[in-house]
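Please fill in the sequence for the structure shown.

STRUCTURE ENCODING:
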């Protein structure tokens, strides 16, 4: 926001904030779980009210009429998944931070959560889950949508909007539709209702059905219904066994190319590459160069290079 209150909105037009400071960049998938709830405790209430009013202003100015997903300098990027403006607003409201139009906020939350063209929400509302046939992040979307829905239900209940609360309390259980009780994992599911096969709980990235994670991680993502998870697993003892099993997993990070296939030559390893901007931070990358000797072809046909001094020692 400029010093005169002007800002560029999601419609790419210039607007003026009236009575609040507009927040233009919102990495919501990264902040809705922990950072923003913490900020409601550490920052002055007005900062949270400014954020919520910014979300509502963006929804009103959006060509799609929905709350921001991952807004950068006022413009929507559609980065990541979920409609995570929703839990941020609900968290503020439930903590008594209410310097905005709560009725308009709830309307914006419901509108965003029922906008079918976004993120296969139409399928989610019809089937009770996002089918992986049409969406490579389907399983993650189902469980994250379900959490967002629960926060709508919480706010609606407090506001006395019983019909909205009932509808979204029902949707908050949709995470179960991606939970396979036979093996205790959240798994990608096909539109016809079948579980997609083959299934690898450790698979992440392209083709996994998950967003920056895998089934081992996302199977625990139902913060609104942890007792439900315990019941589906078979009780406390089964829960403990599942946790032990997860932490006992052995992942040989050097044994996989980014395509997810094992190397033919087990002596070939990924390289560790340090960025100029963050020399203390190492990024795990799969080198696709044939620049030097010592490259080895993987099952997917890529070259993986072990550079002297940077080879992973596992």
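FILLED IN BY: designer on duty
SEQUENCE:
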């Amino acid at each position: 926001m400029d010093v005169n209150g002007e800002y560029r909105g999601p419609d790419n037009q210039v607007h003026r904030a009236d009575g609040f400071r507009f927040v233009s960049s919102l990495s919501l998938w990264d902040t809705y779980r922990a950072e923003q709830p913490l900020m409601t405790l550490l920052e002055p209430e007005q900062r949270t009210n400014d954020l919520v009013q910014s979300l509502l202003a963006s929804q009103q100015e959006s060509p799609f009429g929905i709350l921001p997903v991952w807004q950068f300098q006022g413009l929507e990027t559609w980065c990541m998944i979920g409609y995570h403006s929703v839990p941020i607003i609900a968290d503020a409201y439930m903590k008594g931070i209410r310097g905005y139009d709560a009725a308009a906020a709830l309307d914006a939350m419901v509108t965003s959560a029922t906008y079918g063209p976004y993120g296969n929400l139409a399928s989610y509302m019809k089937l009770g889950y996002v089918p992986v046939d049409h969406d490579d992040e389907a399983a993650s979307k189902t469980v994250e949508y379900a959490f967002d829905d629960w926060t709508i239900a919480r706010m609606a209940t407090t506001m006395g909007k019983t019909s909205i609360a009932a509808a979204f309390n029902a949707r908050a259980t949709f995470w179960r539709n991606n939970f396979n009780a036979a093996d205790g994992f959240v798994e990608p599911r096909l539109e016809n209702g079948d579980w997609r096969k083959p299934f690898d709980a450790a698979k992440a990235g392209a083709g996994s059905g998950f967003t920056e994670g895998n089934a081992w991680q996302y199977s625990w993502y139902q913060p609104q219904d942890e007792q439900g998870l315990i019941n589906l697993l078979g009780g406390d003892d089964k829960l403990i066994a599942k946790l032990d099993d997860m932490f006992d997993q052995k992942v040989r990070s050097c044994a996989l190319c980014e395509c997810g296939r094992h190397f033919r030559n087990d002596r070939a390893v990924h390289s560790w590459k340090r960025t100029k901007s963050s020399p203390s931070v190492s990024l795990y990358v799969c080198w696709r160069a044939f620049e030097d000797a010592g490259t080895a072809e993987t099952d997917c046909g890529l070259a993986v290079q072990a550079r002297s001094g940077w080879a992973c020692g596992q």
